[in-house]
Amino acid sequence: MSALNKGRSVQDGKEIISTPSQAQEPVEWVRRWRLDGLKIFVAMIVVLVATILAVEPLPAWEVEVFRAVNDLPRHAEWPMWVMQQAGMLFALPAGAVILWFVVRHWRPPLVLLTGGVVVGWMAARVIKAYVDRGRPGALLDDVSFGWRTPIDTYGYPSGHAVVALTLAVVLSPYMPRWLRWALYGLAAVVCFSRMYMGAHLPLDVVGGAAFGVLIGSTVNLVSGLKRDKLQPGAIHIR
Length: 238
What we know:
- By secondary structure, the chain is an alpha+beta fold.
- The protein has one domain (about 40-225): Vanadium-containing Chloroperoxidase, domain 1 (Up-down Bundle), CATH 1.20.144.10.
- It is built from 10 helices and 4 strands.
- Strands 1-2-3-4 form a 4-stranded antiparallel beta sheet.
- Helix 5 runs parallel beside helix 8.
- It starts with a helix and ends in a 10-residue tail after the last strand.
């Protein structure tokens, strides 16, 4: 019996999932074991290292990086506030809706919501309490704060960075090259804005971004990526 009839085949590190009844359908579901597995491994290492460093006293280099960003002229405060909304919790269901319109299947949006809200956002709350690291306003003097920036809550990791990178990793495989760059660019702006607005220190953002890559890559691996057999280049497989 062929691999297709058995329902699974593996080609160059990618698992292609199908069933006999689906064999003639113009779509297939692909799991990128090598690429997403590597992303998960690297992200786990970065999260672990960032968490260990965040527990220690605030290093001088982190203060210098934060000052370099936070001390910039305040002309961009309102644009930054608008851009950082892409890292709010409501961005996850919005991203799930976009994903459903792209794939027209329930599984990827459901896995995104489960991974992003339950694992991502909620786990970030737990890690914040465990690490017990204050925000810049509680640890440093002369911090420039943006509108509605929290001061006296936990800082590590940045929940905005978690959400922004999760969405970028999950949505980017279905987008054209220029839009993939735009998604990651927006995620980078969200991370930058959290320091500019005085909400987070650099390690908060690095740990949150890595956690977002970890969640997003896991979502893609669990749900699989929908690919049109007639347009195999429609998703970014490699």
